[in-house]
Each structure stands twice: as structure tokens, then as C-alpha cells.
Amino acid sequence: xxxxxxxxxxxxxxxxxxxxxxxxxxxxxxxxxxxxxxxxxxxxxxxxxxxxxxxxxxxxxxxxxxxxxxxxxxxxxxxxxxxxxxxxxxxxxxxxxxxxxxxxxxxxxxxxxxxxxxxxxxxxxxxxxxxxxxxxxxxxxxxxxxxxxxxxxxxxxxxxxxxxxxxx
Length: 168
Ligand code: ADP
Fold this sequence. Notes:
Helix content: 25-40%
Bound molecules: adenosine-5'-diphosphate
Organism: Canna indica
Domain Nucleoside diphosphate kinase-like: 20-157
Binding site for ATP: 28, 76, 104, 110, 121, 131
Order of helices and strands: EHHEHHEHHEHH
Number of strands: 4
Family: Belongs to the NDK family.
Catalytic activity: a ribonucleoside 5'-diphosphate + ATP = a ribonucleoside 5'-triphosphate + ADP; a 2'-deoxyribonucleoside 5'-diphosphate + ATP = a 2'-deoxyribonucleoside 5'-triphosphate + ADP
Low-confidence stretches: none
Distance between the termini: 33 Å
Strand content: 15-25%
Largest sheet: 4 strands, antiparallel
Structural class: alpha+beta
């Protein structure tokens, strides 16, 4: 698995590398079917995180099972695997300082009825079993999930033109 630290190349941004993380964000099949792809990507883009990987992908059962292996004893696990493999998902790798926890805040609580207005789930969903988006829950899982869903060649290391306007 790919365990190298995410890198930003501009020397003057080296100081900003402190706390740089990467997180795996996935628009689940309901988000794709409901035409929410642009809306959801837009929220991370506008916030100022760096998009490193992006693809539309039909997830095989084995990959869904590996991704959700910590939940395999839960009663909803078979339904969850069926849900995630029911249609294409949008896989994304995002990088930034504190991106893991911040993305979880943007996404909102697991149960969309408890998610705050302004969050993705709070604004766009009503049920835990159809909660439109996934976000890694720790920096370690961010690395693990990006390595699981992406090949190294599918990830771009780049510096957006707006970088100096996002971080001093
Ligand atoms: P999160 O996605 O917010 O990190 P969990 O890791 O607890 O939440 O669960 C993973 C996913 O499993 C949830 O996003 C949801 O799609 C599904 N899930 C969790 N709990 C339930 C449940 N009680 N019923 C149906 N699906 C569930």
C-alpha cells in the first residue's frame, strides 16, 4: 500500500505542510443517481481543499467488503454492501491541512436527520441507509482508503493557481 506523505511542491508553502492530511471521499450510488455529483464536489472545492484524484467507478463486491470490513458484524452490513455496489460511485482523494476532520464536518452526522443544516447530509439526505457520501474517519484510514480505491498513477500532485490565496 502507498504510505508516503502527501506533498506540496512550492517551497514557500512548505511551512503549510504541517498537518497536511489526505482523505477519501466517495459519492455513493444514491448521490450519483440523484444528480448530486456537482453539488457535492463543489462543497469541497469551494472550501479550498486540493483534489488529487477523481473517478466514476462501479465498485466490485470484494472492494466494498474490504472498505467496510470493520462493519462486517453489523446487522446492516449485507444491505450496505448491496447499496455501495448498486451503481457507480464517484471516488475522490482530497488533501489539505486538517482535511479529515473538516470533511467529516462538511459531510455531517451519519444519520441525515441528525445532520446539521449546511452539511451535505443535513441538506441533501433523509436516511442513514441513503446518506449520499462517505468520508474517512481518521488520517490513517484516509491513507488506507485512498490506497485501496486508487492506483498511484490515478493521483496527481499539483499546486493550484489559487494556493497563495488560500494559505499565507
Ligand atoms: P459514517 O459513514 O458516517 O462514517 P459508519 O462508519 O458508522 O458511518 O457507517 C458506514 C455507513 O454504513 C454509513 O455511512 C451508512 O451508509 C451505513 N450505515 C451505518 N449505520 C447504518 C444503519 N443503522 N442502517 C443502515 N445503514 C447504516
